Records
---
Amino acid sequence: MSREKQSVVIAGGGSTYTASIVMLLIENQDKFPLRKLRLYDNDAQRQEPIGKACEIIVKERAPEVEFTYTTDPEEGFSDVDFVMAHIRVGGLPMREKDEKIPLKYGVVGQETCGPGGIAYGMRSIPDVIELIDYMEKYSPNAWMLNYSNPAAIVAEATRRLKPDSKIINICDMPVAIKKSLADILGLDSENDIVDRYYGLNHFGWWTEMYDKDGNDLMPQLKEHVKKYGYASANDDITNPLLAEASWNDTFVKAKDLYALDPDTLPNTYLKYYYYPDYVVEHANPNHTRANEVMEHREKNVFEECRRIVENGTAEDTSIVPGEHAEFIVQLASALAYNTNERMLLIVKNNGAISNLDPEYMVEVPCIVSKRGVEPLAMGPVPTFQKGLIEQQVSVERLVVDAYLEKSYQKLWQALTLSKIVPSASVAKELLDDLIEANKDYWPELS
Ligand SMILES: NC(=O)c1ccc[n+]([C@@H]2O[C@H](COP(=O)([O-])OP(=O)(O)OC[C@H]3O[C@@H](n4cnc5c(N)ncnc54)[C@H](O)[C@@H]3O)[C@@H](O)[C@H]2O)c1
Ligand SMILES: O=P(O)(O)OC[C@H]1O[C@H](O[C@H]2[C@H](O)[C@@H](O)[C@@H](O)O[C@@H]2CO)[C@H](O)[C@@H](O)[C@@H]1O
Ligand SMILES: [Mn+2]
């Protein structure tokens, strides 16, 4: 069956993830054929090396695809079927501040959790809304698939500000965890695991995992996770993410998350909420994850793109697509070609978790077709998870309130309510520091 060709724009063209998504798109021309592929960024200098390298990749491997890169919204967003968005407002230097400011107060400093995530959310909201405005102006029938973090806060903001927009907010953490679990079980792919999962973004739990024949995988997985977390039992690391010490630690730490509730398997991000003391003790306040990313992923990607441009060929490139790229392209395929695939997505609850407010933005398995996404019923969550979710979702909603009302009070409440901030007084000191650090990005609060 021949598949209709698609036109895609990657917004945040200068992202460290762009080249791997382009590589995957190009390698999948039989499954997801393209007529046009564009990169869009609001920073020409940042985007240029990635744009030039991708131009070579496309020319060598799929010359029939029309490729361009631009900073002009009209050029970027016209005649588009899919917007794949992954912007980072303020870049990695602002991520560094999100991580280091809380650590000054002995509080977890993290990209999407706690005060760092709140600060990042306040920066991301207007720019993601701007991308939706461009999409709706120039390609009103397009879908936006959004990775831009913090996805939970962005999802709550888009629900409120753009309730009718065709945006789906997504996260690759569950896929990365399932990839490890598939390795552990000896399965070919994370797609061989069918799961039941509930929660918020970076804040959820699996209740069931079974294989395509309906066999229960949980007993074997629980035995493994109890001892090794989500890491491999031996040094035979197949998941490239685990070659990084900080990610390997996070995957091993999953065993302590599991210990707290052996009825479920946890999202790795719960470590920041269950064990904030451990996280702070093991953090270096002068060298955080943002520094590691700048020293490794960012440096490597930009060096490789410059090398491709200098050599004029990508024949021997080290750029490879991973599960991050696979997940977003799988979602686009399901929407374009009506595959009715089951995927974990961030959606309006609408009864999927029966004892939570229908308006909450939750992360649950959904069926994806050309009609959009339909969340599956996960039933009620137990008291432990319900208490945690109600607290965390209230933080996310207060951040959006604070953004919309330009309210100092609401943001102070959000920080105070965050499980990893010890008191209202620490929350206030943190808020005043974060306001100063974000003065070029946040609305003025009063
Ligand atoms: N949801 C997920 O699970 C998931 C997974 C991985 C990465 N991410 C997110 O993807 C994003 C990219 O991460 P990265 O490390 O590659 O960041 P990066 O800083 O390398 O790239 C982000 C790009 O966005 C551009 N940008 C910023 N504001 C923009 C705007 N308003 N319009 C257009 N472009 C804009 C920047 O110029 C930059 O080129 C981040 O938000 C990150 O948190 C999410
Ligand atoms: O610290 P970073 O920038 O390496 O990671 C932060 C992101 O972590 C998760 O994404 C992982 C993903 O799970 C994995 O598959 C692979 O693609 O690496 C990513 C990180 O590099 C998380 O889901 C994202 O929301 C974070 O931004
Ligand atoms: Mn994520």
---
Amino acid sequence: MAKSKREISPNEIKHQEDEEETEDEKSFDELGLDLRLVHALNKKGIQKPTPIQLVAVPLILEGKDVVARAKTGSGKTFAYILPLLHRLFNESSVKNKLGPASVILVPTRELCQQVYSEVMSLIELCKGQIQLKVVQLTSSMPASDMRAALAGPPDIVVSTPGCIPKCLSTGVLQSKSFSDSLKYLVLDEADLLLSYGYEDDLKALTAIVPRGCQCLLMSATSSSDVEKLKKLILHNPFILTLPEIGDVKDEVIPKNVQQFWISCSERDKLLYILALLKLELVQKKALIFTNTIDMGFRLKLYLEKFGIKSAILNAELPQNSRLHILEEFNAGLFDYLIATDESQTKETEHADGRGHVETKKSRKYAKTKLDSEFGVVRGIDFKNVYTVINFEMPRDAAGYVHRIGRTGRAYNTGASVSLVSPDEMEIFEEIKSLLGDEENKDSNVIAPFPLLTKNAVESLRYRAEDVAKSVTKIAVRESRAQDLRNEIINSEKLKAHFEVNPKDLDLLKHDKVLSKKPSAPHLRDVPDYLLDPKTQEAGKMVKLARAAMGGNNITARRHGNKKKSRKEGDPLKTLSVEARKRAYKGGKKREGRDGGDSHKHKKNKF
Ligand SMILES: Nc1ncnc2c1ncn2[C@@H]1O[C@H](COP(=O)(O)OP(=O)(O)OP(=O)(O)O)[C@@H](O)[C@H]1O
């Protein structure tokens, strides 16, 4: 397809990204944004626009329709929220309108909450100078709540697409009022909207979107769904494209994320994750992905036995609990979150992708209604996640990109470690070939994890295998049921509590111990004689790096020493060049240096 005049190419944006690294960079007020917003951003510690914001904000301020495709964590939300607020701040609101002035549609309730909070925090930081009504609508709301939310009417509605047609069909909102008042429509995470089954809702909505409405479409990847939506809703838009999946290989994962992998058997995954966490070889906070909810619980119970606390996040939990878990994790109340991501969960209702058909008992849980508006990965802005661990590999390369995209957001650094079993080698190869090729050797390579020696792993084997045996299917099932019961009760408490104390995060703990038996004291600490000296040294370096970064990488950034502290202090960074070279030497199928043959080694008894 010929490049339209309105299309801004990856090269142009890439150029701006390069420029951005020089001193010659534009500030938010130079983009023409209202100074109240610029001050609000400064108060949040946000000083300079990201590349997508640099390009999108002026176009949106000019009133253009825009399709923005940019990688995960690149700041797409502010790219549309800022100009939208600017325009709403500076327009005299017409009080005789009966419908909302702007609607932001997102695929999940988690994202509704996230976008709503971002908008509200900017408005609040404008210190009461601005009076805008912003509301959230979700399809589970009773009609009376929807009516109250739409009274006024609001300046901004943040909603999932199913809600507006519901409001129309129940008479809560009149289509004429909607058409008369709507000036701005945003489709965020557009690549997901159709896959979440919103096609009919969006078609119904399109019919009443007025011709003069400015439409914006934001997406991390491009797909036929995005094209469909573009045709359905936008009028001759500007297309802003940052490199995307299947397009420009070296930019799919943000540059500031280091990717590692460990080759191990399916059975040894528990042993390896124990070594990574217990020997403190990865930086906190860490987001750990599993493909099934049962595996998430198995992992949680197993880690508990070693005194490692974690929380669980999946589609089975009630919405209030999920939101609270996210808030607690973002607020730093716990370090490890085990998440089962949505696309994986849906599939596991039948069988898991590697042919492990779920047992009769676990099928019982498949019947538990999973929330179709839940999204744990796509678009969720987990704060300060340093490490993403793929305990199980995602089933496709796009899943990998979105998982890894939960770290290294905006200007932060991050790392990922994937545990890859022989059965997962095929998808791993697919991911590697998507991310980089021989020409792009230095970028987006997934290198063997350099900090864990074979000795260190083997010294934990005996204890790890013993404990793994004790985490039986029955124990997993019981914990899962118990956790669900707890969270349902919590969810009610949460709802009531947050109505009164919206900011109180400490009411409930989500990383509580599920196991009936407390963990044995001797399992909580690894005795020195079992520690391999090299790995012990690596653990110390990781700790030092964390201290150098002030506990998290944002702190380092705020103190203006980001480059120095990241490069010098982070052992993963300093070791990675060598590791990368090694990764390429052995060719495509080369295994990690600790990989594959761990069964051959002598057992170390505790
Ligand atoms: N200009 C900026 N400077 C620093 N941080 C920023 C800037 N803009 C946004 N951020 C922060 O970057 C993080 C990621 O932004 P955002 O959630 O908008 O990314 P995204 O592109 O929508 O990612 P995804 O595709 O995963 O949804 C957020 O925590 C946000 O507050």
